[in-house]
Amino acid sequence: MVKAVRVHETGGPEAMRVEEIELPPPGRGEVLIRNHAIGVNFIDVYFRKGDYPAPLPFTPGNESAGEVIEVGKGVKSVKVGDRVASLATLGGYAEARIVNEDRLIKLPKGFPYDVAAAMLLKGLTAQYLVRRTFKVKAGDTILVHAAAGGVGLILCQWARALGAHVIGAVGTREKAKLAKKAGARHVILYREEDFAARVKEITKGALCDVVYDGVGKATFPASLDCLKPLGMFVSFGSASGPIEAFDIGLLAAKGSLFATRPSLNTYAAKREDLVKMARDLLRVVKNGDVTIPLHGTYPLDDVASVHRALEARETTGAMVLIP
Questions:
Q1: Does this model's pTM top 0.70?
Q2: Pick from 130, 68, 63: nearest CA to 101
Q3: Staple 227 to which of 42, 177, 231, 308, CB 3.0 to 4.6 Å?
Q4: In the chain, which stretches have pLDDT less than 70?
Q5: What's the maximum distance between 2 C-alpha atoms anywhere in the chain?
């Protein structure tokens, strides 16, 4: 029996209840992990609210870090006692979880569990955004919405290390300081300023090569006005609500723009891609190009208050639950 967060009916933070559940032994190709730290991400909110359907009841959480305590038949890549981080849909908010072997990443000796749990989903998201969806290079100008958020702070650091000119959009002056420290050369307070007009001013009319937008409804279609002709709009989240259907002709009218809605599940679907992406992430963290921003660690029992703070956009960086 292990302690786990359960959602029996989708809804607000109060829909999550901590209960005792029984986990079966791991099956073929599966691994049982004792979680030492659990990552909290906005996608967990989408599942909890029912925006992303899941069979009820379920345990939220996509990423965690801990040690292998049992392996099923056929498992070859890890053994009991190994330190690992896991990235698998649902099941993370618990003292232990069962994960398919191909969704595990081995952690270097001594690598902190809380950092691993905080970085995997957010860091791999940043990895595919700057290395694959749009290959950021020296001299590019990029706009990062929610630049002081968990993904945003990693994006700013990684893009700066690649030589890009980073513009960050944030909601408060406190968050502006964090985005600046992370590598944003200019920071826009979107609640006080017209961010599209400020981008035009900052770039002297040249605009951006790419806009990374995890906010959604509140920043569209103004984000398109921040792009130079043939620029790319990358919508990777919808913290303010989903972007509604729009006339695709808008992309032509604003400069033959590209628009994409990528997801980590697609980019990391193949085991070999997940491993390659994780190695790239671990490399930039270990060499100091990227520091994983930890907002705080909280007991698993405090999961509802953590979700409330996340939805209210009161947090910066990553939050981690400790079972």
A1: yes
A2: 68
A3: 231
A4: none
A5: 61
